[in-house]
UniProtKB/TrEMBL annotation:
Binds to mitochondrial small subunit 15S rRNA. The keyword Nucleotide-binding does not apply. GO terms for biological process: mitochondria-nucleus signaling pathway. This is Pentacotripeptide-repeat region of PRORP domain-containing protein.
Length: 301
């Protein structure tokens, strides 16, 4: 055993193997003992073990691993801190998650898009829309634009928490203090959640909060939630908004409603993107008119 613990590479491999056993804590002990025996590990030893522990969902061990690495090497890496943030989310240590940006600052490291996505999703999962909105703003200030992956992330978290009225209410409450782009992201996420629950009235209510959106339907969403009609009226519609409705109408091949959406896009001068084109093909295909869809998309693009 000493032959393994006294050799840096052998100790690293032994730790990785230990992470797959019924006693994964031994993986950390291997690195700790090997360090005491003189092995000076590089950061990739801690990174590879973090990946192994994450793959096996031993989230509770990851914070200790990152702390071990910082203690032994007097520094850490972006990748390890992202693993640390992910682990805190999985074990629901949201108070500690608040301190992650401070650790980045202490280490002289710059968070990347994944860091911000982790922070946003973590606080949304904790139903803390205010903090999630804060880090969405911080992400944009750091030069990372809100893109399709951000939309997908927020939408997936909202869908997971969909039945929770409090989450949606807090999301709406966050609208007045948000910038235009953030409002669009929040409303698109709420619309997608409503559509996936087949709550078309709820989706239309959220849609009415957009700048250029239709007037409210006069009905509340299925759970009676007040959509606060003046909360997001400066939020601009984007192609993602229209794509979601086209995909919804594609379920039933409702060409008439889909064409109303397209006309509305054109009236607002919203450019057709690949997502809209693909959704329109799905609508016509569901209606048995695939050739029409292809011809129409060819004319639009």
């Amino acid at each position: 055993l000493l032959g393994f613990l006294g050799d840096r590479e052998k100790a690293r491999i032994l730790a990785l193997n230990m992470a797959t056993t019924r006693h994964p804590l031994r993986a950390l002990r291997v690195l700790s003992v090997a360090r005491q025996l003189g092995c000076a590990f590089k950061q990739n030893a801690y990174e590879s073990l973090a990946h192994q522990l994450g793959q096996h969902e031993h989230w509770y061990l990851l914070p200790s691993l990152i702390k071990l690495g910082r203690r032994d090497t007097s520094r850490t890496t972006l990748r390890l801190l992202n693993w640390y943030a992910r682990a805190l989310i999985e074990v629901k240590q949201f108070k500690e998650l608040e301190d992650v940006p401070l650790i980045f600052k202490e280490e002289g490291l710059r968070p990347d898009r994944r860091t911000y996505h982790l922070l946003i999703s973590g606080f949304l999962r904790n139903r803390d829309v205010v903090k999630a909105r804060h880090f969405l703003t911080e992400m944009q200030a750091a030069g990372f634009t809100v893109d399709s992956t951000t939309h997908a992330l927020i939408a997936s978290v909202y869908r997971a928490l969909g039945p929770d009225k409090t989450v949606r209410s807090r999301a709406l409450q966050a609208l007045p203090g948000a910038d235009e782009r953030t409002k669009t992201v929040i409303l698109n996420s709420l619309i997608l959640m409503a559509l996936e629950m087949r709550d078309i009235q709820g989706a239309l209510q959220y849609l009415s909060l957009f700048k250029g959106g239709p007037p409210g339907s006069g009905e509340s969403p299925d759970d009676g939630e007040d959509p606060a009609p003046d909360a997001g009226n400066s939020a601009p519609l984007d192609a993602t908004t229209f794509t979601m409705f086209l995909n919804y109408f594609a379920r039933d091949g409702n060409v008439e409603r889909a064409m109303q959406v397209i006309q509305w896009m054109q009236d607002l001068n919203v450019a057709v993107d690949d997502g809209v084109a693909a959704a329109l093909v799905r609508v016509y295909h569901a209606a048995g008119q695939t050739s029409t869809a292809i011809a129409l998309v060819a004319n639009m693009c």
